[in-house]
Amino acid sequence: MNKVILIDFDGTIVRNAFPKIGKPMPMAFEVMKELKEAGWKLILWTCREDEGYNINRQYLTEAVRFCKENGVDFDAVNEAIPELDFRCDTCKKRKPYADVVLDDKNLGGFPGWEVVRKILIETDAVVRGGVRRTAVLLPEEVTK
What are the beta bridge partners of residue 58? Predict the structure, then answer.
């Protein structure tokens, strides 16, 4: 089974400081590495773009490089993972398929990387043990 996550950059992986790269959100890189180790495919899904050959405006390239320098190499950037894309070759591919989307613009905001770990890594371990957990943890429940 493939498990795919779309992850926003500004406000989710790093604090929002666009066009600069903000400081990493607490636990962001640790949890993304754990997700990769647990078999998740990670897609960087961001509004950042490069502006042609202008080296002073390589916003997307800078974000990808920053993540790689912090130990996270994405399976795709702003597109579907080719081997997992089920759509025809001539279809418009505006939004990649994913099981989970992590974005600070989610209704209620981004719950934080500790919540992501609790839901996606710890719950997945329980699922593999034969028990499926269906409850969604809210941020205040994680700290209980």
Answer: 50
Cα(131)–Cα(124) distance, rounded to whole angstroms? 10
Closest CA to 44 of 20, 60, 28: 60
Rounded (5°) CA angle 67-104-101: 75
CB burial string 8-26: b at 16+ within 10 A, e below: bbbbbbbeeeeeebeebbe
Give the model's pLDDT for residue 1. 62
Tokens of 140: 């205040």
As a whole number of angstroms, the distance between CA 124 and CA 95 comes to 25
How far are the Cα atoms of 66, 123, 131 from residue 126, in angstroms, in the given order? 33, 5, 6
Q: Output 72 or 139, whichever has higher pLDDT.
A: 72
CATH number assigned to the domain covering 3-103: 3.40.50.1000
Is 21 within 8 Å of 70 (Cβ atoms)? no
Lookup: tokens for 56 = 């002073």
